[in-house]
Amino acid sequence: MAGSQLTNPGDVRRVTVTSPSTLILLALVFLLGWGFVAFSPPGSHVAAWWPAAGVSVLLVLRLHRSQRLWGALAVIVVTTLSNMVGGRELLVAICFGIANSAEAWLVAFILTKGGRTRPVLDSLAFAYRLCASVAAGAILIGFLAGVTVAVFDGGSLIDTLIGVSAAHATAVLIIVPFALLPSTRLTRVYPGEIAAQVVILGAALLYVFGPGGELPLSFLPLPVIAWAAFRFPTRVVLFEIVGIALAVSWLTTAGGGPFDQAVNLGGDPSTLIQIFLLSVASFVLLATSSQNENRLVAAQLRDRESVLRGGFVGSRVGLLIVETYPQGFVVLESNEIASAVIAPEREERQGDDGSSVVLWHGPLAQKIKVAVRQRVDHVSWQAGVNGVRSDIDVLITAQKPASLQRYSIQFVDVSAARRTAEAQQLALENEQKATARVTELNRQKEEFVASASHELRTPITSIIGYVELLEEEELDDFQRKSVETIARNARRLADLVESLLELGRPRDPSTVVASTDVVHTADDVVRSLSPSAESSGVELQVEQSEPLLAALPAIELDRILTNVINNAIKFTPAGGSVAVSFARTETQAVINIADTGFGMSPETIEHIFERFYRAPDAEERGITGTGLGLPLVQGLVNKHLGSVAVTSVVGEGSTFTVSLPIAEASDATA
């Protein structure tokens, strides 16, 4: 919808009573009112024409809704002053001011009723509304002015009503539409045609209303005016109406035309002029509005057609619009892709009217005709398009009404989609094979590790047993150090084998009902690891706390804490510390092992629970290990429905948090 030239009342620049444009219009209302009162016909109670009415309506219409009451009051004041300066009594001037303000407010109210804040003269419906609002306002002011004249001046109410209504209606219909013009040009301007029409119109007006024009031919200019209404922009037509009003008024005043002769019959030339101009203005506004509406609809249809045609022609799907004929189809519309598909079956003939007709008949056309008869909306076809063999899905849609036997047909090339689907299926099969292969390799590896661990356990146990016997004998210093070395390494091998066996066991959730005092177990682990911590220069601390029971066997909790605390000692430099603390939630026992060691980067933390993974800087710092301790911890914790998490800052240390389900005190085993 085209916008109007009125300011949008809803924006930040909304027009108020104190806006400069409003003050200018108020001044214009005063000048026009004073001038036409001062020069009203002798003996007349009202002016022959009242252009101030049109300016008043325009003023109120431009105001924001919240300002219109103030605008109406301003019109009362200004119109009252103009009437007083023009020579009218105070009370009469006030009544005329109220009447003019009421007219302006009523016209603006009707035009913007229904929430339309930006009235635009772009449709026949709005032209009807404009005419209705002008008529309502004219009748209102005619009645109020008639009552005022009858009461204060003793004049005729009916004569005043007719004269004032005609004068005001004409003024409003001529002036207000200038502010309601569409902001966009809806038709082209042809200066030559406009000039010719203006010359012909001027000649017609001069012939009808000029000196000596006594014949009742006031209808003669109407065809020329209709020419402008149906061909020219609304702005040009409105200027012509103003010109007609001035020309007819001046020529009639000069004694020419049929209206001047009405004096001899007791008529009022001024009233006849107003009625003539009112008829012309009403006709022109309705005609131009109808044309504007048609032009807008035509422009919208052209835009839609352009969009649809652009989508049709540029579509990546073949599109056809066809009608049936005995041997096949008549092609009404087709895009490039569809033309390429039907090219082998396409025939171009000349119709009876000389136009080109495209016929489509052949195997594909016959297959589609069979599908149409069987009411099937989808068939498949293989065609050579641009030298490439393609699989095509043909979609058939009947257009309404069915009596036309018109169909839209889509050709969808599914070759690429099918090749993609086949490639995806092949990739999926390869992925499944690779996954199965990896699973089998993992199974074989775990079986090998478990088997090797079992085989190693027996000789290692024997070595440890004989070492313990040797430790009970009297040995010299060299022998004792040698035995201690053998014992230490044998126990390391035993721990490694035990870890491998533990990692190879199933990790299903434990169903064993057992509980262990976390605080007591942590004390035992700290005491056993204290010699290792002292030799490394690391302070090992454990928080004193009330008993805290966790739902898992003591031996598994011991292994969890031993691995985590031992790991913290190894990665803490001399002078650092490792602290063990406890917490309790509603459902979990929480153990925190915090160290002041080297810390870990986020990249390292992502991998620390992977089997055989070792931190990149472990080798550089000479820290021994197998990379199995933390994976073992995670496996045992998960087995008992717990969790293990780690936070770390490089250069400041790490904190491991082990959370385990709480057990009841009656289930304690340690």
UniProtKB/TrEMBL annotation:
It is a multi-pass membrane protein. The lineage of its organism: Bacteria, Bacillati, Actinomycetota, Actinomycetes, Micrococcales. This is histidine kinase. Its cofactor is a divalent metal cation. The chain crosses the membrane at residues 21-40, 46-62, 69-85, 91-112, 124-149, 161-182, 189-209. Keywords: Cell membrane, Kinase, Membrane, Phosphoprotein, Transferase, Transmembrane, Transmembrane helix, Two-component regulatory system. It is an enzyme of class 2 (transferase). One of its GO terms (cellular component) is plasma membrane. It catalyses: ATP + protein L-histidine = ADP + protein N-phospho-L-histidine. It comes from the Bacteria. CDD domains: HATPase, HisKA.
